[in-house]
Amino acid sequence: MSQECTTENCGRLTTLFLCTACIVELDGLLEDVPALIPLLAGARAGTAVVRKAGSGGGGGVTGSKPPGSLDAMMLQAWLAQLPERAYTLASDNPEAGRWLHMARIWVPQARSLVWGPEDMRVYGNCETGECVTQLKADRHAESVTCQTCGTVHHVGDLIDRLKEKARGNPMPPREAREFLQKEARVFILKKDFENWVQLGKLPYVLERVTTTEKPRKIYYPGDILSIFHEMRERRRIPA
Ligand SMILES: [Zn+2]
Ligand SMILES: [Zn+2]
């Protein structure tokens, strides 16, 4: 059964919520998201892979933010909610077109905040032994050679590592809520948290504190933050 693509002014027919052209476009935007999320944290802390104001030609983004832009924290929280593949959104989400619309605005904003307009990508530090050299590569490169120690890194592995970092270290519920309140200025009620656990929304790991006690469940702050934003977004969209 065909219906119209949910992207505004697209009008193409599809059996999903997005047409093929919109899926391809969204995948292009999603491609960099796993690398952008943790790097936005750096941009936030000012330890920055952020381009210096005025460097690079061609005008456009300088040090100041364009009007209506989100800060790095909000961009990070928003990007963290995106699925890995456009197909997931296109098949499950009747609001997929709206997501593409936001991705068109916010992914380029995150890219320019973290990377500037250049075609180079920064993938964090080498982390081989003591080496902390920043790894940079052309956006189409599949591997990066460290300039200092010569280690060859596969870009896919580096992105996996960045993703794991974005989830943070798992911690017990109360600590996790306090952590997010402090770091992300996000206030999560105990009862909401328990609800999400009950709904099976929050992945956890088991930690054995002592050999006599039962192992307790600990949670990734990054996962909690994603659910928080997902739920808030749901409340905002009338069913
Ligand atoms: Zn479309
Ligand atoms: Zn190195």
SSE class? alpha+beta
- Individual helix count: 9
Strand content: 5-15%
Largest sheet: 2 strands, antiparallel
**Assembly state of the chains shown:** single chain
Give your account of this protein's structure:
The chain is an alpha+beta fold and 239 residues long. The chain contains 9 helices and 8 strands. The chain has helices spanning 20-30, 33-45, 72-79, 86-92, 96-114, 155-167, 173-184, 190-198, 221-236; strands at residues 3-4, 13-14, 120-125, 134-138, 143-145, 152-154, 204-207, 216-219. The strands form 4 sheets. A two-stranded antiparallel sheet has the order 1-2. Strand 5 and strand 6 (152-154) form a beta hairpin. The relative contact order is 0.12. Mean pLDDT is 79; it is low at 45-69.
List its traits:
alpha+beta, two-stranded antiparallel sheet, 3 domains, 239 residues, 8 strands, binds zinc ion
Short description:
The protein is α+β, with helices and mostly antiparallel strands and 239 residues long. Helices cover 45% and strands 12% of the residues. The chain starts with a strand and ends with a helix.
Could you outline the blueprint of secondary structure elements for this entry?
Layout: E1 3-4, E2 13-14, H1 20-30, H2 33-45, H3 72-79, H4 86-92, H5 96-114, E3 120-125, E4 134-138, E5 143-145, E6 152-154, H6 155-167, H7 173-184, H8 190-198, E7 204-207, E8 216-219, H9 221-236
Antiparallel strand pairs: 1-2, 3-4, 5-6, 7-8
Helix pairs in contact: 1-5, 2-3, 2-5, 2-6, 3-5
Bound molecules: zinc ion (ZN) (2 copies).
